[in-house]
Specification:
heterodimer, A: mainly alpha, 8 helices, B: mainly alpha, about 0% strand, Yip1/4-like (chain B), transmembrane (chain B), Protein YIP (chain B)
Amino acid sequence: MVDTKVTPSRDSFEIDDGLEGVDDFVNESNPFENPFHDTIANDEPPPAYQEPLQPSARISDASTSGDAGTVPSPTPAAGTEPQLGPGLLNYYSRYFQLSTQDFKTNLHESVAFKLKKENDDEESSPSTISREPTDLYGAIWITATVIMSKFLILGLLYLLRQGIINGVEIPERQMESLYLSLVHGIWIFYSYIFVIGGASYKLLNKVDDQITLAETISTFGYSLTIWIPISIIIEVVELFQHDIIRIIPLLLKVFFVACAFAKSSIYLYSKLSRPNGSKYVNAIIVANGVFCLLVKIFYF
Amino acid sequence: MSDDMIEPDVVESRVGGGFGGSSSAGVDAGYTSNRGTLDESVYETFKRDVLDINTRLKQVVYPHFGCPQRCTAADTGRADVGDQRADVGDQREIHCDLWAPLTFILVYAASLSRSNTNALFSTVFVSLWFVLLVMAVHLRLTKIRDGNSLLSYISISGYCLFPLVVNNLVSQVILPLLFHNLESHLLYRIYTALRLVILGGSLLWSISAVSFVTKSTTFIQVYPLALCLFGVGWLSILS
């Protein structure tokens, strides 16, 4: 039976002329008014924020800092609204929603010398491994800080030494090397974070299917924290490399790069080690060593 | 033909102008205006756009050191519009333009590459737009609940380049004119020290401005913006 019920017309243009055309779509929702695209102007948060964070299973520091920690949920709970696709910018906002206290905690863990090895117990399963808060904020901006530290600090040291103390202009050669190191720093550090981080995720996913790409990249990003003080120290050494015997600053640079390698490797091992995944973690440590070598050759 | 016959080419559902929806530019136009550009002279269109830019620029140009609530709706003449309208305005997308950022970047790149090759101009031009994009993406990701678009944040970040443009003009044009005899070591020391001091002041100005107009208060929100602006400002001191 044909339904003859006539729905009230929305406007005078809602007339079906029987031909294909724009009027066929009058009753359809406008994709540009899709609430998934533009709900931020409303009170309701976008779908990515319905449950972006979950209570953390982190055991440590919960009692001391008063911050229980949170873990972003890459996949919302079943029954909730559909999540945003990775092609949208809003999708990635969940990885940048962290408090300053969370960031400080993560930063402190990445530079602390005493690390808890929670994940290397052979009897533990991937499901019992404690999950740290996942954010890409650290991976992006710690890396940027490492790169900019050389550009800013070394430039400042050149300026103080040449411009203020000696009263002469900075040589063109030094300026070119400064800009060159900036370019090299960008491709070395960000390639390390995303390429090696992505490859490590692929490896670790074989033994731990719960690990996420964001978690791996975040770990690699925080492992670079040690490079910030190391970079500043090496820049000070580099400033005086012409005043002392050339071999001494070279040895000092190698020593500090080795220190950075050791510290970042320990951090990576403590965070990425998985049961039955020791060979993969060893491969990651080797990749970290190659990265440090590249940093020494091209950057310092 | 009467004016009623002319269909408006722009129907604004918002009060135009102003970062954070707090400008006075749209008061005269009303909340829902039928402002059209077909039935007005080019001079009027140009004048209105320039005044709009000037209105927004004032919010950045005036330093906001320690007065984060100064530029409120009441201060900018929106108090008489009504609370309801102001509430709607808070949820509104920021009315933005890219003319001022383009002008600032052109001036910045031109003054920086004044004594260098054209390659530097193009490099600085592209780099500055990239920095603005990075700042906008950061703001969009960390302040998504504010409901501003990426272009709005690019516009805001571009306006906040103004103090650095001033610093660049002073460092690259005015100071070399004053210190035309830089062969003297003492004069070069003073010249370098002045550039550092001016850079520090302009950076403080710029960072406080971008923190104010984007309502960024936490370290997480402000640090990346400060890092980007510091990098941009550092270009002028090293050239």
